[in-house]
Design a protein that fits this description.
By secondary structure, the protein is α+β, with helices and mostly antiparallel strands. The chain is 49% helix and 36% strand.
């Protein structure tokens, strides 16, 4: 079980190091006056620090290295 968790942490850490975030588009109502509605697309972004991916990567390697082989 620990080995699987370690491998997952390694994979997530590598992905977080390669892609430091993502963006998406969200529809937002600008005007809502009875039957008249106007909406606009708003671009949102989610970013995380690259060192977080490095911490997950190192943590996964430590867990895999210390996991008992069955």
């Amino acid at each position: 079980m620990n080995r699987t968790i370690g491998l997952i942490l390694i994979a997530v850490g590598v992905v977080m190091l390669i892609w430091t975030g993502f963006s998406y588009t969200k529809k937002e109502k600008v005007i809502d006056a009875g039957p008249l509605q106007v909406s606009a697309d708003k671009k949102e972004s989610v970013n995380w620090p690259p060192y977080l991916g490095g911490i997950l990567l190192v943590g996964g390697i430590v867990i895999v290295a210390t996991a008992k082989k069955s």
